[in-house]
Design a protein that fits this description.
203 residues; alpha/beta; Rossmann fold; six-stranded parallel beta sheet; 34% helix; globular
Length: 203
């Protein structure tokens, strides 16, 4: 069974609609570990590198779940990347191989509607475009990058529309999107296992 690590980066999960629904959905997986970074570190940007590396080493599928903040991840996620992805351990190719062959995925929420993340929309680029630095990191580490999953139009409860006039995602729409997120992760698990790329079997 492929082991799934969800590295969750949300500074206020208790007030979240989208990320909370996504995490609740993922609890339906047979083998998943939720690593809530903000619950563990709070406002500190100093992480326990040994702890994070051990979690990465012990899992096959790495899901990075976060809201999209200024076209990237929250501040703790940036600090985590700079500290946990160590030279000589995760890269360069042929030297740091700890993440080689693992699947690297991003599940994100965005306040803007889907059509805003295109060259015709007001954001002018896709979410995949904005996550290219993470793709570059995954590729450098020899991990297998998967196209990100995004839930759009996620606004606070009680807010009917965004500044652009796009409606807030409804509760039923959010529930359906969260279940589709679960299916997306399950498909990655199935793909990993079918490919025979389970590192545990090689140990």
């Amino acid at each position: 069974m492929a082991r799934v690590l969800v590295n969750l980066f949300h500074p206020n999960l208790g007030a979240s609609r989208g990320n909370a629904a996504m995490i609740d959905a993922l609890k339906g997986l047979d083998s998943v570990h939720i690593n809530d970074a903000y619950a563990h570190y709070g406002d500190s940007i100093k992480i326990d590198v040994a702890r994070e590396k051990e979690l990465l080493e012990n899992h096959d599928i790495l899901v990075f779940q976060h809201p999209l903040y200024w076209y990237s991840g929250p501040v703790l996620m940036k600090a985590w990347m700079e500290q946990a992805i160590e030279r000589g351990w995760a890269y360069p190719p042929g030297i740091g191989t700890a993440l080689q062959g693992k699947i690297w995925m991003h599940g994100v929420t965005a306040s803007g509607p889907k059509n805003s993340y295109s060259w015709q929309g007001y954001n002018h680029n896709s979410i995949s475009d904005y996550l290219l630095p993470y793709k570059g990191t995954a590729n450098l580490c020899g991990a297998i990058w998967k196209k990100p999953y995004a839930i759009h139009s996620v606004l606070p409860s009680g807010q009917e529309k965004s500044w652009s006039g796009a409606p807030n995602i409804t509760g039923s729409e959010l529930e359906a999107a969260a279940m589709a997120y679960l299916d997306w992760v399950r498909l990655a698990v199935w793909s990993f296992e079918e490919s025979g790329n389970n590192q545990a079997s090689a140990i």
